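Lab notebook, entry 494. We have the chain sequence and a SMILES string for S-adenosylmethionine, and the next step in the workflow is to get a structural model of the bound complex before anyone spends time on docking refinements. Request logged below.

Task: model protein plus S-adenosylmethionine, output structure tokens.
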Amino acid sequence: MTRLSESHLWKNLREFYEKEGVKAWSSDRLPFFATNNPALAKTYVDLLIAYLEDCRDAEQLDPTQTVTIVELGGGMGRMAYLMLTRLKEMQDRLPCPVKYLLTDYGKSNVEYYKSHEKFAPFFQNGTLEVSQFDAEGPDRLQFDSTNPVFVIANYLFDSLSQDGFKIHDGVLSEISCYLDDKKELRFEATPASDTPYGIKAYDKVLQNYRNVLGNTHIPFPIGPLKCMDSLSESANGRLALVMADKALRSKEELLDFTSLPLQKHDRGFSMSVNCHAMDEVWGQDGGLSFHSAPRTNHLNLAVYCKGLRRDECRRTEHTFRDQVDGFGPLDYLDFRAQIMASVKNKSLRLYLQLLRLSRWDAELFYELSNQLGDAALGAPMNEQQELYEIMTRCWGNFFPIPDERDVPFAVARVLACINQFHQAIGFYGESRRIYGDRCLTLHNIGICQFNLGQLEQAVASFKEALKLDPQYGPSKELLLRTEAEARRQSSLTP
Ligand SMILES: C[S@@+](CC[C@H](N)C(=O)[O-])C[C@H]1O[C@@H](n2cnc3c(N)ncnc32)[C@H](O)[C@@H]1O
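Result returned:
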């Protein structure tokens, strides 16, 4: 019988991330859109600025020294790239220099960060460092103690180890697990002592649950709590942590569970994070926490802050309420999903508005590219210019991972629809460089060359396309037409 946090459940999850590396995100097995998009990066950077200004006003910031932004469990690294891009845009608004420390437990993820061409300029100018770091391991991060620290933890805490407790008729029991003869996971509750952890702050929360909650099961976020304790110590008790995760935020949300709220998926298990317990522990030590207002969206955004009194934290709180409770990254996710469900045959204007709302998301651009191309064909010049400007900004947010979402191909296709054939050929070239040669890419290059009157090159491209897919009808047809056109042109010379 094993305490839940020490069971193989979490070890399996770690092994999954370690083994899969960035491939875990390549085939849509892991949800990533919600926590890797420019709308969230904008909100996080605004929160960072507000927090640093609060620190400056409370004389907790030396503006000549660098503040470290640490991302824990950075996954594929796209959020870090979007943050760095946004930070560069907002450089003039930052009250002090910043550097980004991107970390993950997985060695292969860290190797991937080191080799990613989009990170190269940030390594070169010294704004990015990467490190392998276990968020609940014994090692501590080392920070320069002059300034506070800003931490990002998206979809991480639900991957860290958790314990489970049961309350029945005022009795607190701890849930342990074991594998039965058929290797099925079984849980068993045994009465807990008054001090299950021997750590006053944690035990106090559990005692309170036993006293006030009815019959229920509660996850206890031991891994996240240890992680926050360790960060707090490394940062000398002066830090802000922003997080996005599935969460239980109030005592009410902890009621009536007939078993632990474990969710099974192909990478193992995860469990909504008991943020209420985190708030309670954090609060005992003078920490503050803000959570997104309740929504149907399962995702919770939160800021945990330590080292400032509430009256010193006004800008951070106001920015959070304004950006997260008003129409913010969470609403954007739902809104986007609803529009995407019936996205066909809408106006170019609506597509452009949606891209602006996304803060120029390259992923969304990719998903909308067929509609954008169709709507842009024959659109007035000013709308085409607007599209061009938006496309440029979306391209700036593109961070490739080894998946099928060929954004340069999508950009090239839209450029071709607005008759920018030279540039489209350049982007098809980028698509070939990153995603390899595909019949359709070479075929489309041939079409651009045909439109530019480069008939010889077009013939060569259609032939290349047919080498990759000898049965591709459109290339066969255009090859014949282009050869015929070339013959016609060569027979009529002045
Ligand atoms: C669900 S993914 C989230 C990734 C990214 N933050 C996002 O939102 O897309 C969890 C990430 O945390 C990492 N991870 C899991 N356990 C960890 C630990 N103990 N310390 C640091 N990273 C960990 C995994 O390698 C994985 O990259």
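Notes for the group: The mean pLDDT is 94. Worth checking against the assay data. The pocket of S-adenosylmethionine is lined by residues 14, 17, 30, 32, 35-36, 72-75, 104-106, 109, 134-136, 154-156, 159-160 (CB under 6 Å).
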